[in-house]
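User: Please go through the entry that follows and flag anything odd:
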Amino acid sequence: MNRTIGILGGTGPEGTGLARRLAAAGEHIVIGSRDAQRAAEFARLMRDRLGSAAPIEGAENPAALARCDILVLTVPFAGQAALLKQLKPLWKPGQIVIDTTVPLAAAVGGAPSRMLGVWQGSAAEQTRDLVPSTVAVAAAFHNLSAELLAQDGPVDCDILVCSDDEAAKKVAMELAAKIPGARPVNGGKLENARIAESLTALLIGLNVRYKVRTAGIRFTGLPL
């Protein structure tokens, strides 16, 4: 399938991990950043790791948005609303945004294993409010750690995908399935992102208690 995927806020740990994994799977990736030079440098570093022909490049966030029909939002919660408000006039009908944001209390100086209250119910539902109604929203990748993404081997994690739009959910599940070891799981409606996001805080607490950085989730009893 010929498509280009933009990673908004793609120079952070989660963004670079997803960008590298999806580029390695053959997806054409545009890393978005506030700084075009920074984005270009991260893209160059990934091409050095994956091979010079790897389909990955960098751009400012607005330019990445303009070029791509599928966008993955990987900014910290503290910057989510500001970025989406900046980009709101630039969205095109039919675009899909996959939100990975988790409203951790660390965004306001609190503990990373605690959640912030979001008026809309979840970060993904806040995204739904801040993009045009003609843009489809899915929530995914909350429980897949940046540390696992940064490694070269398969991950050990199920990926909950929540959306009210079936086409957006299908795209997000397709992308999740491209990461070796990951299994996409249909998490139902977008409002269920509240649960998926809160699991991240639980996983962070488990990482601390067990002195690891790669805790993930698996659901048993589901058909493969």
